[in-house]
Amino acid sequence: MSGTTPSPATTVATAPRSVLTDLGPVAQLRAGRLARRLPQLYVGLFLYGVSLALMVRGALGLAPWDVLHSGFIRHVPMTLGQAVVLFSFVVLVLWIPLREMPGLGTISNALVVGFSADLTLAVLARPDAIAARIALMIGGVVLCGLASALYIGAQLGRGPRDGLMTGLARRTGWSLRLVRTGLEVAVVVIGLLLGGTLGLGTVVYALAIGPLTQLMLPWFTVDVMAPVLPSAGSSAQAAESETR
């Protein structure tokens, strides 16, 4: 009877992972199910840009990083979406000393979100009625939670700002919550000094985006096959993965 029991190594090698995995850029592409994961990634990123535009047209306050973007474009001839793209690549430069590795989703995030935001802003006017503006603000926050769950669940790489957060947490030993709070307070303060838009929507976003993403993420997390390390030399490979 004991001879029919599968070994733990066999189980790990054949069972798909239904949780988020920390894979390198190449492993992300080799993890399978790209026919679902790629469309889900780009739908999520496009909707993320739409959610940003909804909050802008609601004019009741923006997400913390968008407070910075909106303040920055007051001083340069640039659209909001272009500012999102610019700051995404500025943040990616900060990945270098943190030794974070961008994936396909990382670069796509830096480009698609800004394009989608500008496209939506071009076709969506700001309403005058306060009820409509509140609806846009709430809709933007909820849609952002959905979009985040979609692109994170595709497991094709962190967004630039998420990678900065996780990289700083790994390097400093501080908690993710502490690092995220510190980063968002810093960008809001800088954004306000530049004339960015802070308001009720900023507070609603800060309080709701985490729980909304956590609620929806299990719905869209795609099962992928994590790479199986050989038993010999597994410690060395595990140590190498920690340095990426």
UniProtKB/TrEMBL annotation:
InterPro entries for this protein: YczE/YyaS-like (IPR038750)
Transmembrane parts of this sequence: 41-60, 80-98, 105-124, 130-152, 185-208
Superkingdom of the source species: Bacteria
Pfam family, one: DUF6198
Alphabetic keyword roster: Membrane, Transmembrane, Transmembrane helix
Name of the protein in question: Membrane protein YczE
Species annotation: Nocardioides potassii
